[in-house]
Write a sequence for this structure.
């Protein structure tokens, strides 16, 4: 009887212990069409992403997993067929990685299918969009540049104190951080933002116009006070070629800055007191980096001193680039942008359709 009782007690303890473990380990995170997904699924996704060396921010792993599950639900409902040979090829590649033993073959295969389904569904959306808009390709000079903006958004109640302490209309890269210090010292509340601009049509029209017109800052009032700086740098890998003029006075007479302009080159060249040397279609990698950063637009100039302490102007008058490379780069930027846009819209729509619930 005692032995029987002990065995029974041990069995109860084991069941109770297992139940506790299960509650600690398996926690429902979200549900799609009554199918539950737990923290174990999320952890497996995290391990899978580490195996394929996909570095995703810890906070974004859950969003990524929700995304692939919604695409998986869509694939099931649309009966989208998966190319098994492609999945097997991916599986072989992953199994050759050192950390592939972190997960079972079944879990890895499932995650490969999730990613592959999302990929082919997004590709279909993108292909349809490009086909519908293939005649609307429009490239302009701003596509040559990496464009970044830094700006402040401030409540109108601070307008008087702001304008009495800061010359907002003359902000630039060198004083934008000083402005932050002045605002802190005057208890001015603000929001500060840094953004890369990839689509000019998705930003404020006033900022857009300043970018197009090669302005280096902006300041306007629309419900809030908004001001900031614009940084435009020519994109790399476009086979850029610069046509430059080196201009130097041969006398003690100083050259006027306003006279150093591409439209006056012939006049400068005919002046016996001025030395003008043309450097035609110089490759980007042959130009000093500090000089190059200041030469982004026609008529941009750099003033340097030679070893005799003479003032020399370097003037940019032509800029050539590989049109095909630019178009390819813009095309891939567009693909990336469309993929993110379609995915975000898809997730919002399908969360409702597939009865998504987060716990």
């Amino acid at each position: 009887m005692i032995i029987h009782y002990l065995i029974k007690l041990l069995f109860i303890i084991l069941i109770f212990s297992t139940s506790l473990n299960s509650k600690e380990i398996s926690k429902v995170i979200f549900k799609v069409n009554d199918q539950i997904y737990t923290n174990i699924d999320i952890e497996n996704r995290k391990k899978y992403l580490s195996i394929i060396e996909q570095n995703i921010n810890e906070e974004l792993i859950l969003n990524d997993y929700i995304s692939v599950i919604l695409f998986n639900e869509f694939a099931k409902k649309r009966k989208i067929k998966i190319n098994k040979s492609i999945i097997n090829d991916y599986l072989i590649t992953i199994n050759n990685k050192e950390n592939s033993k972190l997960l079972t073959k079944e879990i890895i295969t499932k995650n490969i299918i999730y990613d592959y389904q999302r990929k082919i569904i997004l590709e279909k959306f993108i292909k349809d969009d490009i086909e519908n808009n293939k005649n609307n390709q429009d490239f302009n000079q701003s596509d040559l540049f990496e464009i970044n903006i830094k700006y402040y958004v401030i409540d109108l109640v601070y307008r008087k104190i702001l304008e009495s302490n800061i010359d907002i209309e003359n902000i630039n890269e060198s004083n934008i951080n000083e402005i932050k210090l002045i605002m802190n010292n005057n208890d001015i509340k603000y929001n500060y933002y840094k953004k890369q601009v990839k689509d000019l049509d998705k930003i404020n029209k006033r900022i857009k116009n300043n970018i197009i017109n090669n302005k280096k800052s902006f300041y306007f009032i629309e419900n809030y006070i908004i001001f900031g700086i614009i940084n435009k740098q020519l994109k790399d890998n476009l086979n850029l070629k610069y046509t430059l003029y080196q201009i130097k006075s041969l006398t003690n007479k100083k050259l006027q800055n306003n006279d150093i302009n591409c439209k006056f080159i012939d006049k400068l060249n005919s002046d016996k007191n001025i030395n003008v040397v043309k450097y035609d279609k110089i490759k980007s990698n042959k130009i000093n980096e500090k000089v190059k950063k200041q030469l982004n637009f026609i008529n941009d100039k750099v003033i340097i001193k030679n070893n005799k302490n003479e003032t020399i102007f370097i003037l940019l008058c032509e800029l050539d680039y590989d049109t095909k490379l630019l178009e390819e780069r813009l095309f891939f930027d567009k693909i990336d942008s469309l993929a993110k846009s379609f995915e975000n819209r898809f997730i919002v729509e399908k969360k409702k359709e597939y009865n998504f619930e987060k716990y």
Q: What stands out?
A: The chain has a mean pLDDT of 85. Residues 241-320 form one domain. The chain has three domains: 2-133+340-358, 141-234, 241-320. The CA atoms of residues 61 and 238 lie 35 Å apart.
